[in-house]
Each structure stands twice: as C-alpha cells, then as structure tokens.
Design goal:
The structure holds 2 protein chains of 2 kinds. Chain A contains 16 helices and no strands. By secondary structure, chain A is mainly alpha-helical. Chain A has one domain (about 10-535): Cytochrome C Oxidase, Chain A (Up-down Bundle). Chain A is globular, with a radius of gyration of 23 Å. Chain A starts with 8 loop residues before the first helix and ends in a 12-residue tail after the last helix. By secondary structure, chain B is of the alpha+beta class. Chain B has 2 domains: about 1-35; about 40-155, Cupredoxins -  blue copper proteins (Immunoglobulin-like, Sandwich), CATH 2.60.40.420. Chain B has 1 helix and 11 strands, in the order H-E-E-E-E-E-E-E-E-E-E-E. In chain B, a hairpin with a 5-residue loop joins strand 7 (about 100-105) and strand 8. The chains are: A mainly alpha, B alpha+beta. The interface between A and B is large, with 72 and 68 residues. Chain B: It is found in: Cell envelope. Chain B: Keywords: Copper, Membrane, Metal-binding, Transmembrane, Transmembrane helix.
C-alpha cells in the first residue's frame, strides 16, 4: 500500500459513481434554480400548478445537500486512494454500501418532495411537517455518508499502522479532518430527525419542541458549510500548487488551518439564530465570538495561496510587486476556475462577517442578502473549485484526457459563471439591503411602494440566473465529454510537494484524542447552558402543520 | 512552528481587525443595549387568543409617548393587519404565533424577528419619521407565505 500515482481502477469506479450523481443533481437543481429566478422576476408563472416552494425545496436539497455531499465524498475517496494507497476490498465494499444508502436516500427524499408531500425547504423547520419518507430519506443520506467516513478512517488507520512515526499524506489528513467534522456535526441533525421529527411525523408523539429542533439543526447547519468549503481548501492547498508548477507553501500551516476549522466551525450555530426568541443574548454573543475565530484559518489560507502564487512567479523570473501575476497559467481551466472562485471568496467572507454581527444581522436576517451571500461562498467559490477539480479528476478516473477545445470551453464556462453570479448575487445583496425577503415567491405585498422597489433587482436576478443556467449546460457538456467521449489517455492526478524551505510537520498534529477533546470541549462550552435552558423553560410543544 | 514574517504581519492585522469588530458589536450590544430580539416569555401556542395581551391584539398606550404593539401571526396573516402609530412614539412590539414559525420584518427598519410557537419575541423602536411601512413574513411558512403582510402607518 504505497503511494501510487494513479488511482486504482476499482477505487476510481467508486469515486466516479459519486461524481455522476453529483452532476445529475446539478442538472436538476440548476433547472429548479432557473425557474425560481424567473418566477421572482414577476414575468413568469409556473405551469400546471407547480408550487414555487416545491421547486425551491428541490433546488436546496439537490444542490445544497446532494451535489455537495456526493462530490465531496467521491473526491475524497479518490484523494485518499491516490495519496494513502489503494483501498482494501473491505474499505471499498463499505464505500459502495455508503454510496447506495446515500443514493437510495436521495431518490426517496426527491420523490416525496416532487409529489408535494415535503415542501418544507431544505431546512425542514418544525412544526411544518413533511411525510415521514422525506425524513427517512435524509436519514439514509446521512447514515450512508457516515459509513463512507468510517471507511476513510479505517484506511487512514491502516496507513498510520504501516508507517509508524510518519506524518500522513496531506490530502489524506485533510479528508480525515473533514469527515471528523462531518460526523461530529451531523450527530445534531441525526438527533433531531431520529428523536424528534420522525416519531412526530409518524404520529408516535403528538408534539415537538420547535426551538430544540432548530438548535440541533443549526448545530449541524453551519459546520455543514465548512464541510463544503474544506474540500475546496484541499484543492487550493495541496493540488493547485502542483497544477501551476509550484510548491506547497507550508504543510504544517495547512494542517493547522484545518485543525482550527475543526475547532471553530461547530460551536457557532447561534449566529443563524440571532433573531430568535428563547436564547439569552449572552450566549448568542459567545457564539458570535467563536464565529469570528473561524475567519482566522481562512485568512491563513488566503496568505498561503498568494504566497504559493508569488513564489512560483518569482521562480520563473518575475520582478516587481505584481509581476508574478503574469506568470500564472491563466489558460489552464484547472487553475483558472478555482482562482476565480478564490477571488469571489473575498466579498463572500466579508459578507459573512456582516451576517455574524448582531446589529448588522438585524438588517439582513432572512432577506435575500443571505441568499446572495451563500451563492458567493458555496455556489461560486466552492462550486467553481469543484468544477476546476472535475477537469482533471474525471479524466484521471475515466482514463481519458481533456482536449484543448474542452479546456477552452471550461475557461468560457468560468467566465460565464462569474458574470452570471455577479448579476444574480450582486442584485440579491442590494435587494436584501432594501428588505426583500429570501425564500418567497413573487409578491408586491399589496402594492407596497417598498416592495415595488425590489422588482428591477429581481429582474437582474433572473438575467443572472439565466446566464448561470447556460454555465450549467456548458459544464455538463464538458463533464459528459470527459467521462465518456474524450480521447483515451493518461491524465495526471496532481498532488503538490512541499517547498524545500518549509519546516517538518510536527507529529502532534495527528493527536486525534487531543483534537477531538478540544472540539467537544468548545461545543460543550457554547451549548450546554443555553440548551438546558431551552429544555427546562420549554413552552408547550407544537403539533404538525401541512400548510402547502 | 515557524511562521513567515509577512504571514505574521498579515495575521496580526487580520486577527486585530476581527477583535476590533467584536469589540464594536459587543459594546453596542451590552453597553448600549442593542441586543438582538431574544424574548424569553413563553406562551401556549394553542391558547394565544385567550392569553393577554394577545386576546386583544393592537396598539396600547403604556406611558407618556410609550406604547405596546401586540401582534399575532398565523398562516398567512398578521392581526391587526393595519396599525397607526403616532410620530415619535416609542413602541415595544410583542409578537407571537398561533401555528408555525413566521418572520416579522418591518421593511426599511431594524425590526426583524423570528416568531416561533411557544415564545413571545419583542423589540423596541422609536418611530421618528411619518410614512407607511410594510410588515412582511420573511420565514417560509407555507403556500401563502409571500402573501403574509401588514402595514404600519406613522402619522403626525
């Protein structure tokens, strides 16, 4: 089980299966997104009595949960197999079990959404009550992802056993951190679904504690976004340096930033509940402080990336303050797409700090500003990085090569995406500042002059949404080509090497007992007292409602 | 672990900014009382119509130029649907719901609350300018969510 340059055929099949599902979700979820922006422009109504909220639920579940989770697990399987060696049959077997559970769960969830039994949006806040099949489907997705997580842990443990007192490969380490993060946070959503929502929707219990359910959801909901972001950071830290021909700036700082994400991305859920009754303001502030701490590893990442770029440019003879920019491989979509994603993370991160600040949150909470925010973070930074990775990962796994024409198309795709998103997310931010709510069908609120002001921005969103849908068609063309039609050949799975000047990585960074203890301690500090309060001072519970 | 000199400068600047932001938010919240709405009063969501003050929703004068506005949210409307507030009045808005979670946003102001079954959420605001404000639901509550609205008129 030594480091191999090529992912084993059998592991490649497992990774590809995940990636196919991810891109099918992109096609369907993207179509739903296009329809939403058209409806909100006020110029278009959905045919055949299809509800805006059914479409919205479909969009959120398919893109927020399915596209992300499947791509991430597929990518991580490939990265771990590439850097820590081919999987054992047992690890691969459990990987397939995880895949099928997630796929069956997705199909089940999608079925109940599409027949209109679960128009509860992807946050499924009680006491809106969906069909039990919706919750059961989501449970299967989460359980499947846990199994895949444990498959990765088992493979990592075996590598450590076979390589005593050696530092694990960077990509493998990062994948393990991300799956630990995922496991710890998804316990929250599993608890609310299994203990509260499922028995209540089955009629086994009459009433539900709404605030506890929401708190458990958001205990999961924020680290969820870091579960999306960390694979993008893996690609930035460990793969982009190789693509441009440079070196990883520092292995130990990369690991440190991942460890900080593990610590600080979980005990921060209250920043989604700042406007909520039933939570003492003091505890909201504690979690706001922790939320700001999670910006630190992102600052470190920004530094490391630009240091890598500059070091590379200078090694190619660049001079002057910004001369190195010209040496970067702008014509290579594997670099260009993630790079544009990085640029979008600058306003996205700043907007995130706005959302996490009490008084500013009061202005933007539940307005379409927030939708604009996560269409920068997730739908641009993360997604463009995933597209950029797909351009080498899919041909590597399918035994093909990307042609120059496809590379050119991928560059165009990135530009189309950036333009579409600038329109859509930009106008969402502006309309949000004027008070336009998120998650709402077109409405003038009884011809309110304030609501009429939003319409031009909503039309701009539809223009942006249409451009983005063209971007989705382009990426689907490229991905289909790379998977089935591109010329046969060998494509490199790029893995960066550490710069000679960087220091050795301390082994203490893999002291999991310590890392997990700190994570749990921070969670207990942030949540114990307010959570006990919620249960001790609970109002009468709520029965279920189906109001759609 | 060694950290490059430039990275140290960058991180000191970055982390320093974060602490300045946190101090501003914290001082505003704890010293100046700009806390987010965090009502801790509970109520039986099925007995809202019988529980004061929500048995008689509307504007109540509580002192010199001070008022309480008690509002009930339910799918898909607010009671009362229209309120007149005298200009310059300091109004404490109390709001609760009879059924699912709703939002309570007064467009163009900082009034923005989650309204959750079992709780009364509150926020105090002085209305200094005359004009019409739109109240709307900004948390998805069902098929008629986008029709859920009310008006505040601030009059001389």
């Amino acid at each position: 089980m030594n480091e191999t340059l090529k992912v084993d055929r059998r592991d490649a099949k497992l990774a590809l299966a995940h990636i196919y599902v991810a891109f099918i979700a992109l096609a369907l979820g993207g179509l739903a997104g296009l329809l939403q922006t058209l409806v909100r422009s006020g110029k278009f109504t959905l045919p055949a009595n299809i509800s805006y909220y059914t479409i919205l639920t479909t969009h959120g579940v398919l893109l927020g949960l399915v596209l992300t989770t499947f791509f991430i697990i597929g990518f991580q399987f490939a990265a771990v197999s590439r850097t820590a060696g081919t999987f054992s049959d047992r690890v691969r077997f459990w990987g397939w079990i995880g895949f099928w559970l997630m796929t069956i769960g997705t199909a089940m969830t999608a079925f109940f959404i599409l027949i209109g039994e679960a128009s509860v949006l992807y946050t499924f806040y009680a006491p809106l009550q969906a069909h039990p099949g919706f919750y059961l489907g989501l449970t299967l997705v989460v359980v499947g992802s846990w199994i895949s997580g444990f498959a990765i842990f088992a493979h990592y443990a075996r590598w450590k056993k076979e390589h005593p007192s050696q530092v694990s490969p960077l990509l493998t380490f990062m994948a393990v951190v991300n799956m630990v993060l995922w496991l710890v946070c998804s316990l929250g959503v599993a608890a609310t679904v299994l203990i509260q929502l499922l028995p209540w929707s089955l009629g086994l219990v009459d009433r539900i504690n709404v605030l506890v359910s929401r708190t458990l959801f958001w205990y999961f909901g924020h680290p969820l976004v870091y579960f999306w972001l960390l694979p993008a950071y893996m690609i930035w830290y460990a793969i982009i340096p190789k693509i441009i021909g440079g070196k990883i700036f520092s292995d130990s700082l990369a690991r440190l930033s991942f460890i900080l994400f593990l610590f600080f991305s979980i005990p921060v859920g209250f920043h989604h509940q700042l406007m909520e009754p039933g939570v003492e303001p003091f505890w909201k502030y504690v979690q706001v402080v922790l939320t700001f701490m999670v910006a630190i590893p992102s600052l470190m990442t920004a530094f490391a990336m630009f240091a890598t770029f500059e070091m590379y440019g200078r090694s190619k003879g660049a001079t002057g303050l910004f001369g190195w920019l010209r040496k970067l491989p702008w014509g290579d979509a594997r670099f260009f797409a993630p790079f544009v994603g990085m640029l979008f993370f600058i306003p996205a991160g700043a907007g995130g700090l706005v959302n996490a600040s009490h008084q500013l949150n009061q202005v933007v909470h539940n307005t379409i500003w927030v939708t604009g925010h996560f269409h920068l973070t997730l739908a641009t930074t993360v997604v463009l990085t995933f597209f950029g990775a797909a351009y080498w990962l899919i041909p590597h796994l399918s035994g093909r090569v990307m042609t120059k024409a496809m590379n050119r198309l991928a560059i165009i795709q990135t530009i189309v995406w950036a333009i579409g998103m600038a329109f859509m997310s930009g106008s969402m931010h502006f309309a949000g500042l004027l008070g336009a709510p998120r998650r709402s069908a077109f409405s003038t609120y009884g011809n309110s002059p304030q609501a009429l002001e939003w319409i031009p921005y909503q039309i701009a969103q539809a223009v942006g949404g249409t451009i983005l849908f063209i971007g989705i068609i382009l990426v689907l063309v490229i991905v289909t080509n790379l998977a089935f039609f591109a010329p046969k050949g060998e494509t490199e799975f790029p893995v960066g090497e550490v710069a000679e000047t960087a220091e050795r990585t301390p082994l203490a960074m893999e002291n999991w007992k310590l890392l997990i203890s700190i994570t749990v301690a921070l969670i207990l500090i942030a949540y114990t007292i307010p959570f006990i309060d919620m249960i001790q001072n609970a109002p009468p519970g709520s029965k279920g409602y189906k109001l759609w | 672990m060694h950290i490059h000199k430039y990275e140290k400068i960058w991180l000191i600047f970055g982390i320093g900014s974060l602490f300045i932001f946190l101090t501003i938010v914290g001082v505003s919240a704890f010293a100046k009382g700009n806390q987010p709405p965090s009502g801790l009063t509970t109520i039986d969501p099925e007995k809202v119509d019988q529980t004061p003050p929500f048995n008689k929703p509307g504007l109540v004068k509580t002192g010199d130029n001070e008022y309480q506005l008690n509002m009930v949210a339910s799918a898909f409307s607010y009671t009362p649907a229209q309120v007149e507030i005298p200009k310059g009045a300091k109004v404490t808005i109390n709001v609760t719901t009879k059924d699912v979670i709703h939002g309570f946003e007064v467009v163009g102001t900082n009034i923005n609350m989650m309204v959750e079954p079992g709780y009364v959420n509150s926020f105090t605001k002085t209305f200094d300018k005359t004009g019409e404000y739109t109240i709307l639901c900004n948390e998805y509550c069902g098929a008629g969510h986008h029709m859920m609205t009310a008006r505040i008129k601030v009059v001389d």
